[in-house]
Amino acid sequence: MLSLLFFFLMLGTVLFPAAPGYGLTADQIVVIANKQQADSITLARFYMDKRRIPAENLVTIDMEPAEGCRRSDYDSRIAAPVRSFLREHSRPDTIRCLVTMYGVPLKITSPALSEQGSAAVATLTEKIEAAKLSQEDGKEESMLESLRGSLAEIKNQIAYQTKIHDMRAAVDSELSLVLQAHPLAHWLPNPYFRDSSADFVPFPKEEVLMVSRLDGPSPDLVKRIIIDSLAAERDGLRGSAFFDARWPDPGLKKVNSYGWYDRAIHRAAALVRQSGRLEQVVVDGEEALFQPGGRRHAALYCGWYSLAAYVDAFAWQQGAIGYHIASSECSTLKKEGSQVWCKKMIEKGVAGTIGPVGEPYVNAFPPPDLFFAFLTGGKNLVESYYFSLPHLSWKMVLIGDPLYTPFAAAPEGLVQRKR
Asked: What are the distances in angstroms from CA 261 to CA 101, 137, 197?
């Protein structure tokens, strides 16, 4: 009964996407680049020039430009300078969006608890080695066994806490909450999310920063994302929309969480078709994915489920936006040979995509009917994402120019109402 009620609430939201008209502007964006990666600074300035973002809205961090970083390094070398910049060099209430550039770490790989536990493990290991030497001198075996027991207990605690209270996250998702203290254990609800629980969140949307990332396998591809987004705004996003469900549309039949997202793909196809934004909308309800071959000029896409195994089925149009619902499709943007969807889609030509840095669970993905309803309703990329994103302090990443607005104004005749 609750799931059916939630569906009707979501249905009303999607049919009449009345998200607040925030209208993000260039001066409300702060760009984050890494001093230790020359291309990071160059790309930041290129983007800021193209979008006329004030030069003073650049904040630089200073750390190794690896894709992963420890929680302690995130706190001290990313969050701290960003927080300081926002408080000292601008009025925080005027900044609504952060952009992380190529060279800024993608994910927090090690929770604080694991770092503390690792130090304890190292200390105990040294004591065990010392105890072994003492044992050779004829000292008691009991000391060695006690130390071994303590070591096993600490390792078990680390494994348990990492599994139950997962504090690994996307850097961008954590940066949404950079101005406030918040618990680190699984996800937190996003106050921008357009669902029936939006009134029950620990902080108001005014205290949340939207975050988008301009990143990819190479600096040239990041520059291409920026240029393509501007060109598609100027010339129009052309091509077809492709939605790859796994099963036939269940209608209003009760379904599990997987079925709910599959139904959302069918709903997204119907809503994009209804919007009149693109000439052709193709929806497939068979379990097999779209396969290579054929003439599929994709402007929009959503589908599932091919884990870290991109299928080269589309000719991505300039400015194309799409995402694939699978568990770790943004776990890397750089690793050579990786077939994760975000990396491969960028290499093949998309300008905007979404994916998780680790296992997010299916309910962490933006429901495609919401995301594409906001996008075709005239919202920019970052607002379409945040209005449909369920969780913060979690695994999801948006890649693309936050200001990119492929469908600038609602087409004539599209009715929008408040819920």
From this structure: 31, 65, 18
Residue 197: what are its φ and ψ, rounded to 5°? -95, 10
State the Cα–Cα distance between residues 273 and 10, nearest whole angstrom.
18
Q: Which helix (H) or strand (E) holds 160?
A: helix 141-164
Average pLDDT, the chain: 85
Task: For residue 229, give every residue at least 6 positions away whose Cβ sits within 8 Å of its Cβ, in sequence order, or none.
Answer: 319, 351, 352, 381, 400, 401, 403, 404
- Phi first, then psi: what are they for 83, rounded to 5°? -60, -45
At residue 121, the pLDDT reads: 55
Quick: pLDDT tens for 217-245.
Answer: 999 999 999 999 999 999 999 999 999 99
Rounded-to-integer distance, Cα 55 and Cα 48, Å: 7
Distance CA 339, CA 342 (A): 9
Q: How far is CA 362 from CA 267, 404, 409, in A?
A: 17, 26, 31
- Residue 294: what pLDDT? 83
pTM: 0.83
Q: Which two tokens stand for residue 261?
A: 């997202």
At position 297, the amino acid (one-letter code) is H
Q: Which residue has the tokens 């005027």?
A: 94
Q: Is the pLDDT of residue 6 over 90?
A: no
Q: Which tokens go with 379?
A: 């919202």
> In 10 A of CB 11, how many CB atoms?
13
Compute φ and ψ for 290, nearest 5 degrees.
-55, 135
Q: List, in sequence order, the alpha helices (H) in 95-140.
A: 112-136
Answer for the pair 175, 98: CB distance below 8 angstroms, yes or no.
Answer: yes
Measured from the Cβ of residue 125, the count of other Cβ atoms closer than 10 Å reads 12
Annotate 174-236 with DSSP letters as a single string.
HHTTTTS----SS-EE-TT--STTTTS-SS-GGG--EEEEE--SSHHHHHHHHHHHHHHHHH-
